[in-house]
Amino acid sequence: MHGKIDDMIDLFINGFFLSYSTCKDELIEKQRKMVDNLSAPIIPITDTIFILPLIGTLDDQRARIIEEKVLMEIGKSKVRTLIMDLSGIAETAPESIDYFSRLMEAVKMMGCEPIISGLRPKIVQQMIRMDIHYFKGATRATLQQALYDSMFTEKEHDKKRLDG
User: Fold this and answer.
1) 39-163 falls under which CATH superfamily?
2) Mean pLDDT, to the nearest integer, of 103-109?
3) Predicted confidence band at 19 (pLDDT cuts at 50, 70, 90)?
4) How many CB atoms lie within 10 A of CB 129?
5) How many CA atoms lie within 13 A of 143 on its CB side?
6) Which helix (H) or strand (E) holds 72?
7) What band does 35 get if pLDDT is binned at 50, 70 and 90?
8) Strand 49-58's sheet: what is its strand order?
9) Domain residue spans of the chain
């Protein structure tokens, strides 16, 4: 009789811990997805101009998340200009710089004009060491300058469309 009770208790404890572990893993995965989503916010400024402000560290995993979000948003929202503000990036892995450079090319392939703002001297030095001398898009010193230029370009584009 004691053996049967012990077996039932073992089954209960085993089932409980398996259920707990599965629930915990699902919660962790949901939280990871939420953090991934928040790590690359794409903010619409107008119908065609969007900003991707980045802060913190840019590593390979985060670069892949950014790539996925950026390309999906361009396809979904018909983004004409994407301003990627890197002024909040304190540190970046060398492989992420190369990955980011290729992302600029992918953005252009989708018909969107990428503008990079806020490149820090340390990141520019890394780019030079890696023999990356240019991005496939425009660069501006500040986010304010990038916004001004892209808004002016959008007005010119709209004027040509209306005139012609």
Assistant:
1) STAS domain (3.30.750.24)
2) 90
3) confident
4) 10
5) 13
6) helix 60-77
7) low
8) 43-44, 49-58, 81-92, 113-117, 138-140
9) 1-37, 39-163
